[in-house]
Amino acid sequence: MKERGKSMERSVDERYSQWKSLVPVLYDWLANHNLVWPSLSCRWGPQLEQATYKNRQRLYLSEQTDGSVPNTLVIANCEVVKPRVAAAEHISQFNEEARSPFVKKYKTIIHPGEVNRIRELPQNSKIVATHTDSPDVLIWDVEAQPNRHAVLGAAESRPDLILTGHKENAEFALAMCPTEPFVLSGGKDKSVILWSIQDYMSTVASESGSKSSGSGGANTKHLSKGGGTGDKSTENPSIGPRGIFQGHGNTVEDVQFCPSSAQEFCSVGDDSCLILWDARVGSAPTVKVDKAHTADIHCVDWNSHDVNLILTGSADNTIRMFDRRNLSSSGVGSPVHTFEAHSASVLCVQWCPDKSSVFGSSAEDGLLNVWDHEKIGKKQTSVGSKTSNYPPGLFFRHAGHRDKVVDFHWNASDPWTIVSVSDDCESTGGGGTLQIWRMIDLIYRPEEEVLAELDKFKSHILSCEKKSE
């Protein structure tokens, strides 16, 4: 086993060395940031400022510690360099053990327990939900929360709102609705639970004798009602669920809202099931695919451009794409396509906000793959006599992490920009790696457009050569 472990280490190191040598060719921009403690989740927050060469944006991370200091929710400021600004030779010259000048810690919240999952409210991304090893979902108004110094013995920050309802721990399955201030969670109690933050805002408004100021994200602007300090004299505000949905036979691992409806959502779990729900018709599944994969399903995402397409990622190392029009309540439903390029459990899948057919997947093999399902079935481009041996649909492989890539997030404000995190405990004995990156646009732009640009570049070089003669 030791020999096998050493050979795996060598192959990872070789892969990483090869990747680093290709960074100037494959990437428009890349920032590498060493983390003292691993972060199990990473999410983009609101964009703060736009400048000539870069934008400033919030970034949400966590610190999963060994207990010598508290676990934290971290709010960072990130400088995102704009396309075609960074010099190719500079982006590959980074020290793996150093922190990036592009990422600066802005605020620390001392979190009650480790942060397993972070999700931001799309209508107001200053409102964040977190999952820890407990039955509760914690809601934070990150701008209103005070900055804390994370030292041993420091009192925990108080969440602005607690969502109750799970009977057992809910650790990973968490989603925020794109259209309403709704929160969705799944847990070890095999339940999917729906809440509305609006219910809390309405209660506060009625208690204070003021009228509710309408629905939607606007009411979440002033969520904080004295939370944030370590003072336990006042109880944390909490609300119960709007609905509890039963149908899974094991732990629910991930949940996702339908992008066009706050009442429709889906869930996946350790029972290998994909379930679709509609809160308008009751608490039973509307569609249940019993064997969506051959092992536990870790992640799910719903396409915001085409609401018929749903992605799932599993411990069977594959990603599957389902068309909900092909699914039936009898549990019969085969995927439109199965994507195979990972050699270990898939941990995260997410559709790209910039192109409807593109998505990313990350796994325990340390890779983050980028796919385009529209490329499946099309003739593979060949170089000379060699044909491409890449799996169908795969068009980019990010190999900058040397351990399991536990989370990633496409940036909705900066097209084709991704933040990804790896938990490096197994490879380096501790810490993690945060990378912010954008592949070079020649990779994803239409082929005719790219060839035309390269042809202009070729003409420019030839004219320069003639002038120098």
Automatic annotation (TrEMBL):
Entry protein name: WD-40 repeat-containing protein MSI4-like protein
Residue ranges of the TM segments: none
Pfam families: CAF1C_H4-bd, WD40
Tree of life domain: Eukaryota
The keyword Repeat is assigned to this record: yes
Keyword Repeat included in the entry's annotation: yes
Organism for this UniProt entry: Dimocarpus longan
WD repeats: 245-287, 290-323, 339-372
InterPro entries hit by this protein: Histone-bd_RBBP4-like_N, WD40/YVTN_repeat-like_dom_sf, WD40_repeat_dom_sf, WD40_rpt, WD_repeat_RBAP46/RBAP48/MSI1
GO biological process, one term: chromatin organization
Domain Histone-binding protein RBBP4-like N-terminal as annotated: residue spans: 14-81
Family in the record: Belongs to the WD repeat RBAP46/RBAP48/MSI1 family.
Region (Disordered): 206-245
Assigned keywords, A-Z: Chromatin regulator, Repeat, WD repeat
